[in-house]
Amino acid sequence: MSEPTTPTRVRTAPAETGAVAAPAPAPTWRRLLSGSAGRNIGLVVALLVIVIVGAVTAPTSFASVDNLLVILRQASIIGVISIGMTLVIIAGGIDLSVGSVMGLASVVATLAAVQDLADNLHWSVMILIALAVGIGAGLINGIVIAYGNVVAFMATLAMLVGARGLAEILAERRTLVVQDRGFITFMNSDFLGVDILIWIFAIVAAFGWVLLNRTTFGRRTVAVGGNREAARLAGIDVRRHTMWLYAITGLCAGIAAVMILGRTTAGTSTHGQLYELDAIAAVVVGGTLLIGGRGTITGTVFGVLIFATLTNVFIQNNLSSSVQAVAKGVIIVVAVLLQQRFSRPPGRS
């Protein structure tokens, strides 16, 4: 007789000592907040809080359609500049010259020779000249940074000083008044009850969103900001791409120059002072990382609206500009701290 078979026991190998445990998954709330949707939700909440404060503290003057249009009109010019700034910062750069370029473009577009040419042809000549000045200054920035290997901070700082000085020389430190009534009438018109400046901001923001999210150019912008060397190895011409990014920022500065000409009916070298700081602040509050690689146009639009609404609330309550500056500074610091907190990889504290 055969012996009964003994059931085979399966031995499990003991766990290796010293094995590294997999990192614990990040909490759901953190994954939500670290995404673009979560950041935008936070911006909407912040904007609503400011609106509620304004409606409570100044119910008669703040909570009106006319005041809403005033806020949007005040946000439109800095908003256009911020769209271009968003693209540059996502790519890991910075542009400190946009305010000075805006002032230079407004001066060149209102020179006597340009206005005479506009009288003989069409007032759109002034617009084309302003845009050309903006693009030209942006291309100079881009070439110096991309092909001259100059740090973006220093290159655009030099343009900030140089453009402002050139504007003062051309204008002879005077205010150049726009004489063409057709240009003034168009830039102060409205469509469907909404100011033309607001429409321009909306169109530029829409184009910026499409460019960043629906084109190869936008994907390359994010790639360059995320890892410049990896983008180069992937076949992206990083230097040429950088050059065109600064040209786009200059174009936005030129558009803003046209807008401020329509609003003030004058060109002067003082236009755009400190606008670069306001634009950077709006971009940072909107969730774009200063180190590059991440950012949204939608977030920037909310950042611009938050600052414009906050300013309006302070004005409605007769608070000084010094208090406004302190509040803006606090908001910027909080935004940067939140960026540092939620931009870390999941699983890291």
Automatic annotation (TrEMBL):
Subcellular location: Cell membrane
GO CC annotation terms, alphabetical: plasma membrane
UniProt keyword list: Cell membrane, Membrane, Transmembrane, Transmembrane helix
Membrane topology summary: Multi-pass membrane protein
GO MF terms held by the record: transmembrane transporter activity
Main location: membrane
Transmembrane domains' residue ranges: 40-62, 68-89, 96-115, 121-144, 151-171, 191-212, 243-262, 297-315
InterPro entries per record: ABC_transp_permease
Designated name of the protein: Ribose transport system permease protein
